[in-house]
């Protein structure tokens, strides 16, 4: 009798029965969310992402990236001008031109670099769910249609619209499309952002006395862990306290004395810390963060004037954020007249310092001469790009309205004997596509901390007036 041929085992499936306590049961199915996460991802970028970071398409690891043709049309409108967004548009256009020199943009092109995905320009905006019909004729809705069409064409992929425009993200989600913010360079928890100073309680009285008598002490006597470079401390004992600073070069705690800068005196500990850093020639990069009225710009300007003999020029600059999204070209007059409304807060601080002295005094006249002879220059940031800033004391006001790339560009302009100060409030942002997590000031504070050339101070107490404090605290 012939031996029967054994049957081949069945092919394995995701639902094999497994033995558990003598009983068999099916293995659980993968959840829909887990299955979705395993799908290949394709990111569709809108114009706001490109204007924020022209190298964005290189930051999605192995995943594919696409841009709708409407994005290229919009970038064409931004390619002329001196603003950072014009620079970003030009750089992206050059990159795409180089990438597509031997290929068609309608095809998936390999991105340069190891373990990178592919890139394509989306030409087809005819989606079954038509965002233009639902929301109206607008470029944003054409971009959304292109993403929806790609989602139709690639049901085996997870298509994600990436945009800095919150409203566009909401519209995409309303049409059942995944939409995300551009996360590269974004600070995850601004509540934990580096403050630059701390208070240490219950310090032995002899340590306080040592700092007052000698001016310095070893940090191990006070701190359990090594402090960040150029970090400030309020050391408190039962009866006394002392302001101190961790000198990154000498590796020791040093007493901080309250200094005066061209008639401006610190009114609290944090302002004393800020002035100490501003007047310290060893610290070349400083950020000062605080709400309106804490004295950020005033302290920076006063310290610059105090050190006027050490630098060839003093630059005060701030980003121009046009009102109602209109360019400054809409305003009447020449370029100086157009920019004056944006520069007024800087002039106000200069007048405050000037008014500390009688009009007949040498100090009052010195400030007037500095402006007339362009020793002190107030200018928009657009005029700084492309220059080499040597022997300059450079103050950048309202830095929270800058992108991380803009901050990097400004710092990279620094030449020999240049000091750069960034001031601002990360919660008071006037630029549509930035927030407290993605602005350049937050990025700088997070990335530059613990560097021997950098110091940061967060100002907490408003010193403008009791009325201004009421607004900050109660309204």
UniProtKB/TrEMBL annotation:
Molecular function GO terms recorded: ATP binding
Name under which the protein is recorded: PhoH-like ATPase
Residues in PIN domain copies: 41-170
UniProt key word ATP-binding: yes
Record keywords, A-Z: ATP-binding, Nucleotide-binding
Organism listed in the record: Pontibacter ummariensis
UniProt xrefs under PANTHER family: PIN DOMAIN-CONTAINING PROTEIN, PROTEIN PHOH
Lineage of source species: Bacteria, Pseudomonadati, Bacteroidota, Cytophagia, Cytophagales
Comp. bias regions, Low complexity: 1-14
Pfam families: PhoH (PF02562), PIN_4 (PF13638)
GO cellular component terms given for this protein: cytosol
Stretches the record annotates as Disordered: 1-33
SUPFAM superfamilies to which the protein is assigned, alphabetical: P-loop containing nucleoside triphosphate hydrolases, PIN domain-like
Coiled-coil annotated residue ranges, if any: none
Keyword ATP-binding carried by entry: yes
Annotated family: Belongs to the PhoH family.
